[in-house]
User: What shape does this take?
Amino acid sequence: MNESRDPTLHQRILSEIEGRIVSGEWPPGYRIPFEVDLAEQYDCSRMTVNKVLTQLAKAGLIERRRKSGSFVTQPQAQSAILEIHDIKAEVQSLKLAYSYSIVKKVSRKAKAEDGRRLDLPAASSVLEVVCIHNAGARPFCLEERLISLATVPEAAEADFAAVAPGPWLLNQVPWSTAEHRIHAVSAGAEAAVALDIPKNAACLVVERRTWSSAGPVTHVRFTYPGDRHALVARFTPASQ
Assistant: This one.
């Protein structure tokens, strides 16, 4: 064993293990090979491997359990309740690859339920968009969005191939007011399939409506698997 021949051995082991975790090759819950096995694989000392695993644990990528080994952790995203957050940035903050796909995109007349969600008169024109946002190889959240075509007519022609509907709207329409509603639900059949979770699994739902000076802009419902997401708010004491 001659670790001096490779001064970047520590970084190489760290990068390779981190790469397997971030790519999804080693999914959450996966037990990482034991220190002695990694030391043999990389022809290095157990101390070098231990330092790598300690660094990964501090970064939140693995959990070290005494007598059981080291396991890939379940990424937990955090978003601010009072902010319009960027899902891509959330996913990338977890050191996971971000992607999304459009499941549905259709222009139609608003239904009664749409009017309630988007505060629109009956028969208004809306664009319905459904997306799946992914973190690595796993679904991160389900997005179900309505856009008022009276306020944002150009949305009807947008294909959202390069930019998801949320960032596209933020770049397109200055919003003046936003409303958030947060609640817990059990996953229905469609959400369970979309998020690859069991039916009736606990989910966190964040609903948001935004308005501009021209009228209602959008209503969006984000559904997250309950064990993968947390909401955070920062505030200061009210003035006395």
